[in-house]
Design brief:
Length: 84
């Protein structure tokens, strides 16, 4: 399975990770792994935006289908949960 090295930024905290991700897995299936690596909650709606190429991934997209490049910078956006 081919992989790409990406830089992922947390859209709420600004935390950044750099890691390899499989190119042929739907984005919806990558989001839990990305969330774990950024240590953010799994609940709620999340979106991945490629900041290098200026587009938002759809849930069914793969890194390969959107021609994602090695070391592209992506932003994970979500609604943070606040304790009551």
């Amino acid at each position: 399975m081919a992989k790409l090295n990406l830089i992922i930024r947390d859209g709420v905290t600004g935390k950044q990770i750099q890691d390899e991700f499989p190119v042929d897995v739907p984005i919806r299936d990558l989001l839990p792994d990305i969330s774990n690596k950024l240590t953010i909650p799994q609940s709620g709606s999340r979106k991945l935006i490629n900041k290098t190429q200026s587009f938002e991934y759809n849930d069914d997209d793969t890194l390969l289908s959107r021609d994602t490049n090695e070391n592209d910078v992506c932003l994970l956006t979500y609604e943070p949960e606040f304790g009551v």
